[in-house]
Amino acid sequence: MNEKTSFSKRPGVQTLLVSVLCAAFGVFLGFIILLLMNPAHAVEGMGAILRNFFKYDNNITTLMYYFGSAIVKSVPIILCSEAILFAFKAGLFNIGVAGQYTVGIIASLYTSVALGWHWFFCVLAAIAAGAIWGFFSGFLKANFNVNEVIAGIMLNWISLYLCNIILGQETVMNVSKSETYDIAEKNASGLLPGFLQGVFGNNQYMTIAIPITIIVAVVILFVLNKTTFGYELKATGHNKEAARYAGMNPKRNVIFTLMISGAIAGLAASMIYLTGIEHYKISSSVPGMGFNGIAVAFLGGLNPIGAILAGFFVEYLTLGGQYLNTNYYNPQVADLMVAIIIYLCGFVLFFKHLFSQIGKNKAVKKEVQE
Amino acid sequence: MTLLIQYTLIFSAVLILVALGGMFSERSGIINLGLEGIMVFGAMAGCMVMVLLPSDASKFTIIVLTLLASAAAGMVASLLIAVACINFKADQTLIGTALNMLATAAATVIVKAFNTVRSGGSDFSAKLDYVKGHDAFMFKIGNLQLSWFIVIAVILLICATVFFYKTKLALRLRACGEHPQAADSVGINVYQMRYVGVLISGFLGGLGGIIYVAAANTTWHFDYGVAGAGFLALAVMIFGQWKPERIAWAAVLFAVFRSLSNVYMGIGFLSALPISGTVYNMFPYIVSLIVLALTSQNSRAPKAEGIPYDKGAR
A308, A343, A284, A159: which is closest to B96 by C-alpha? Predict the structure, then answer.
């Protein structure tokens, strides 16, 4: 018997293959949708989405500026997906990330604009707010057996209305523009410190959020795979009763998992809103970041590093929607493509099965021939 | 006060239908988190039919065609869940979430394209107006404005209850949600039963969607989806312990809280309270969290829900 598994059968490689397949198929279906909407301009439209900010390739500074903005905007989606995959590894589907992200927005904007705190404490406040929101669903799950998905969804809506109340106050909201005040204007110390701004065409939104995101991903990878705590979380996720029998405390682990997951989501909100690139507007639907994070987590093969790549890809597509010619298409086509890609991610198991089946059949044939 | 009753009836109708849909799906063993998305598709199809029908169409034609379109659209949407979760053993939570995102995005894109084509390129909004269609569903008893939607919901509730308790098909369907292997061993086709469960949820969810959108409004912005009504229905279903008659009561309770946020302005002592209107919006969600905390401990959830059926498993 040959002990070494071939390159194409390694789980990591398979996951990557499947993700690329899902993404490619999603883009392909997106192209078909463009064809259905307006066949004459479909190629041009798809080209605009995929070419994206590279259309500025005649001017390297502008190009780098937009490249920087794309990175900045992909930070929250990556962190949200880290939050989701962390909980998922522990057997919890934390759909409440959207709400934890929303309370993160409340905490970071309120502390920086209304209270004038230093950025470091604003970030801490956002993390704490997210953790508290995560604690609610964890507490309900552990002590009252409330499904974390339903609880998360309810908390999402509650957080949205809370956000509209708190950030709708005149101390935070610029009523004439109906969006929150610029942090730079009200409290410059509330902005995150810059990072490599010179390289990216003096993009003032490039901040330490980017290295922080990478550090968070690495820490999650480490905690899940190399620590007792991570092992306990995963064991609880696999089988609660077995974990209890082995002397772990499943209730505590459930609450901890959702708190940490919430904290990461809160951090995600502060990492985008404290750069000043985005303002909060009164909204009637929960911010989609948490939901897109689900897509990214699965597209990234539930791997913290994979999530970084997938996050950038999804944000790239979403931004690409803005380069569409609005005379023929609307930018939501890109959202639709992202949604299709998530749906396809559900078939990952099937694809993997298919791959291993192909491998097996070959092996069997070989054996028969021998 | 009549306004409160009116809204309560409408929301009850929506929640009853959608929660019953969720119940049939879960009883067959498939968790249907995509109810929200199914509602959006149903609502979109129904509204489009109302917009497209000629102005001299009779009330009866409008009612029948709108309902048929919504139910059909809901069933098509539910097929997305059925194929992925039953045939391809996909993660049911993920697929449900994906369907919700897909539905809102697709509805926005489709309605915008629809408006653009119909207006000859001057209207890019994701909004549909259907005053005429809305009026077709209205009738009055005394002071109370009622909608045919409510009558339909009541009829369907009765049908569903009878079907659920008195037919062989429903008994088989329930068996598949509790112990699919045992059901299979006595010759029941588990895959088929689960398809039936999910398709019923699509049918009822689609109808719920059109009622939610059209019973109290004459326009709808499709970029907002249905604002969490599908999830509220799931809470109703859990509170109703997966039983039709209990779901009906639970739905009425939730509907009262939901309609308070719409009509508190008109009720003297409520609008006098120093509470922001947004707080009333939070009410149904807070109440459902508390109710869930109190009722989930002895949950009667179908035992096999959420687990893809594997014929070879022991």
Answer: A343
Nearest-angstrom CA–CA distance, B207 and B226 = 13
Measure in Å the smallest separation between the Cα of B205 and chain A Cα atoms.
18
pLDDT band at A87 (very low <50, low <70, confident <90, very high): very high
| pLDDT at residue A41 tops 70 | yes
Q: Token digits for B170?
A: 């429903």
Residue type, A44: E
Q: Which has the closest alpha carbon to B35: B235, B191, B214?
A: B235
Dist. CA B116–CA B99, nearest whole Å: 25
Higher pLDDT, B220 or A361: B220
So where are chain A's domains? 12-369
Tell me what the mean pLDDT of segment A272-283 comes to. Answer: 86
Domain positions in chain B: 2-295
Beta-strand pair A173-174/B127-129: unpaired
The DSSP bridge pattern shows strands A173-174 and A179-180 to be antiparallel
Residue B228 to residue A147, Cβ atoms within 8 A: no
DSSP designation for A103: H
In sequence order, what DSSP letters do the residues of B31-69 get, joined into one string?
Answer: --TTHHHHHHHHHHHHHHHHHHS-TT--HHHHHHHHHHH
Q: How confident is the model at residue A216 (pLDDT cuts 50, 70, 90)?
A: very high
**pLDDT tens-digit profile of B14-34?**
999 999 999 999 999 898 888
Class of the CATH-defined domain B2-295:
mainly alpha
Q: What tokens were used for B183? A: 């059901």
Mean pLDDT of A333-344: 83
Contact call for A343 and B102, based on CB within 8 A = yes
In angstroms, what separates the C-alpha of B126 from chain A's closest C-alpha? 10
Q: Which CATH class is domain A12-369?
A: mainly alpha
Q: Are A122 and A111 in contact (CB under 8 A)?
A: yes
pTM of the full structure = 0.85
Q: Which residues of chain A have a CB within 8 Å of the CB of B83? A: none
Task: Tell me the chain B residues in contact with residue A140 when contact means C-beta distances shorter than 8 Å.
Answer: 289, 292-293
